[in-house]
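Query structure, 545 C-alpha cells:
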C-alpha cells in the first residue's frame, strides 16, 4: 500500500507538471502578447503552481526517500502529516473549479488562439489523448485518494505498530478535508462523464455544463419511418434533453454522430403497437418524433420508459401527466402544436389507402406521400400543398389539405360544404380505444385467405371492423356480430388455429397466429354475439409504469 501511494504520487506529480509547466505556462506566454488577458489564465488554473511545487519538491521526494529506507523505517504516517497544513490549497482549488470550467469553455469558444494552444497540447503524447478538463479534475480527486489509501494501510497495520499513531492522526485530518470536497467530487464525477460523452460525440455538442446530468445511456433500435426495418442507434438521456445518435466506425473507443437533440420540456412518451417488432414506444418532442424498440426483453422496455419518464417528471417545466398520457390518435397533434413539433410518420405498410380521400394506393398512379405536419400517409393529390413549419425553421414543406387549411387559415369549397362520411369511413384508431384489435387471417366463402387488421371499437362493441392495415381510415368491411354462430373447431381445409362466424348463408373464417390469441378473440366475440358488451382485452395499462 505504501508503494502504491508512491507510484500514484509520481503519476499525480506528472499530471500537475503538465497543468502547471505546459498548459498554464504556454497560455501565460500567449497572454503576454495581449491575445487574451492574463487574469483569464490565472483564474482558470487558480493555485495549481503552489500545489505542484509542494508535491514535486516536498511530498514526493520524502516518499521516495522513505521507500528507499523501508526496511529500517517502515512508516508513512509522519510524512503524510506534512501534507495536512497544505490542504487549504486544495480547498481554494475546489472552490474555484466550477468557475474555472466556465471560463475554459467561454474562452475556448471565444478565442481561436486560446483554443489552438489547448488543442495542440492535447494532441501531445504526454496528454494521453485526454482533454485539459480531464487533467484539471485530478487535484479535486487526489485528497479522497489519500484517505482511501490510508484506510487500507491502517487495516493491515498491527495495533502496536510504530506508525499507527501518526497514520491515524493523518487520516483524521485528511478525512475531514475529503468530506469538504465530497460535493465538489460528485460534481466533478458528473462533469468527467460529460467530458467523456463530449469526446464520443466528436467535441461538437455543447453538453459540458454542471447543470446537465446524465440519467441513462445505451443502445436502442430505431424503426424506420417508411418501413419496418430496425436500425441500431444510441441514446444519451440527460435531465434536460435526449440525444439520439448513430454509432460511427472508430478504431479507438466508441464514437457517435448526433442526429437529433430533443428537449425534455414538452416531451411525450407512449407505448405503441407494431406487429413485426414487439416492445416499441414513441418519444415525441417539439423537434422530432421517434419510434423506438427496446432490445432483448420486455423488461428492457419498462426500464427505458421508466428512465425517460423520470427525466420528464423531474423537468422543471413539465409534469408527469403531460409526459405520459393516453391520446385518441397516436399520430394526432393538438391543433396548437401543428407545425411546431415534429409528427410521428405513419409507416407506408400501415395503410392501404390515402388517409384523407380514402382512395387505394397503387405503385403507378396513386403512390404514398407523407404530410410533414401531421405525419399521415396521403396520395399525391391530397399532398399537393405547402406551408411553413416552425419546427423546420419556418421552411416551406409538403403538407396535406387539412393541415394546409389549419396552418394558413384557408378553407376550400369542399370543406365549407361539409362532406358526409360513409358507413365504412371509421378510422382503425388506437388499440387504447378498442376492446380488441390485431391481425388475423381472413377468408370469406371461397376467396383466398388474406391478412386483415381486425378491430372491435369501444364505441361500437358489437361490430367487428376489417381493415387492410392498422392506420387505415376506412374499413374494407364490417361484421355486426349480434346473432352470429361461433364455430371453434377448424375444418380440414382451414388453418389449424382457426374459427368461423356464420349466419344464414354468410360464413366468415378467421385464423390467429397462436391458440392463446385465438382464445382471446373467441372470449370477446362469444360475448358480442349474445349482445353482451365485452370488456377491453389486451390493452396495455401504462398507468402501472
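Result returned for the query:
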Amino acid at each position: 500500500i505504501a508503494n502504491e501511494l508512491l507510484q500514484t504520487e509520481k503519476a499525480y506529480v506528472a499530471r500537475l507538471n503538465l497543468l502547471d509547466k505546459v498548459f498554464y505556462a504556454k497560455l501565460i506566454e500567449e497572454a503576454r502578447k495581449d491575445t487574451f488577458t492574463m487574469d483569464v489564465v490565472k483564474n482558470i488554473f487558480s493555485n495549481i503552481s503552489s500545489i505542484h511545487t509542494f508535491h514535486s519538491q516536498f511530498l514526493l521526494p520524502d516518499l521516495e526517500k522513505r521507500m528507499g529506507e523501508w526496511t529500517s523505517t517502515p512508516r508513512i504516517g509522519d510524512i503524510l502529516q506534512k501534507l495536512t497544513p497544505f490542504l487549504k490549497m486544495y480547498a481554494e482549488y475546489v472552490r474555484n473549479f466550477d468557475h474555472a470550467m466556465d471560463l475554459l469553455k467561454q474562452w475556448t469558444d471565444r478565442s481561436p488562439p486560446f483554443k489552438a494552444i489547448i488543442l495542440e497540447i492535447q494532441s501531445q503524447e504526454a496528454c494521453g489523448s485526454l482533454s485539459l478538463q480531464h487533467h484539471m479534475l485530478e487535484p479535486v480527486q487526489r485528497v479522497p485518494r489519500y484517505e482511501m489509501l490510508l484506510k487500507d494501510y491502517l487495516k493491515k497495520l498491527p495495533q502496536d505498530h510504530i506508525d499507527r499513531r501518526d497514520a491515524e492522526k493523518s487520516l483524521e485530518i485528511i478525512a475531514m478535508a475529503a468530506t469538504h470536497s465530497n460535493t465538489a467530487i460528485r460534481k466533478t464525477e458528473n462533469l468527467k462523464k460529460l467530458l467523456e460523452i463530449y469526446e464520443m460525440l466528436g467535441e461538437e455538442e455543447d453538453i459540458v455544463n454542471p447543470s446537465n446530468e446524465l440519467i441513462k445511456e445505451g443502445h436502442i433500435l430505431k424503426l424506420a419511418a417508411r418501413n419496418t426495418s430496425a436500425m441500431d442507434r444510441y441514446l444519451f438521456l440527460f435531465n434536460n434533453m435526449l440525444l439520439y445518435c448513430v454509432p460511427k466506425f472508430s478504431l479507438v473507443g466508441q464514437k457517435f454522430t448526433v442526429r437529433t437533440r430533443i428537449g425534455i420540456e414538452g416531451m411525450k412518451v407512449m407505448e405503441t403497437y407494431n406487429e413485426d417488432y414487439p416492445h416499441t414506444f414513441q418519444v415525441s418532442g417539439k423537434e422530432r418524433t421517434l419510434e423506438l424498440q427496446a432490445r432483448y426483453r420486455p423488461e428492457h422496455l419498462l426500464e427505458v420508459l421508466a428512465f425517460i419518464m423520470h427525466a420528464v417528471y423531474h423537468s422543471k417545466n413539465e409534469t408527469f401527466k403531460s409526459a405520459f398520457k393516453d391520446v385518441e390518435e397516436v399520430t394526432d397533434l393538438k391543433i396548437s402544436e401543428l407545425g411546431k413539433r415534429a409528427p410521428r410518420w405513419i409507416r407506408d405498410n400501415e395503410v392501404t389507402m390515402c388517409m384523407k380521400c380514402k382512395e387505394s394506393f397503387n405503385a403507378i398512379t396513386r403512390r404514398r406521400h407523407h404530410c410533414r405536419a401531421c405525419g399521415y400517409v396521403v396520395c399525391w393529390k391530397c399532398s399537393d400543398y405547402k406551408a411553413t413549419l416552425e419546427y423546420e425553421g419556418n421552411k416551406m414543406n409538403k403538407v396535406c389539405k387539412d393541415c394546409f387549411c389549419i396552418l394558413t387559415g384557408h378553407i376550400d369549397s369542399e370543406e365549407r360544404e361539409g362532406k358526409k362520411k360513409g358507413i365504412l369511413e371509421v378510422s382503425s384508431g388506437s388499440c387504447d380505444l378498442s376492446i380488441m384489435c390485431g391481425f388475423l387471417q381472413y377468408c370469406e366463402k371461397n376467396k383466398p385467405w388474406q391478412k386483415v387488421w381486425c378491430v372491435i371499437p369501444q364505441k361500437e362493441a358489437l361490430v367487428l371492423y376489417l381493415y387492410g392495415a392498422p392506420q387505415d381510415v376506412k374499413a374494407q368491411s364490417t361484421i355486426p356480430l349480434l346473432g352470429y354462430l361461433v364455430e371453434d373447431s377448424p375444418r380440414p381445409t382451414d388453418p389449424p388455429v382457426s374459427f368461423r362466424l356464420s349466419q344464414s348463408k354468410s360464413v366468415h373464417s378467421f385464423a390467429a397466429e397462436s391458440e392463446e390469441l385465438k382464445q382471446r378473440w373467441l372470449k370477446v366475440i362469444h360475448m358480442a354475439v349474445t349482445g353482451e358488451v365485452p370488456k377491453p382485452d389486451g390493452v396495455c395499462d401504462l398507468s402501472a409504469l
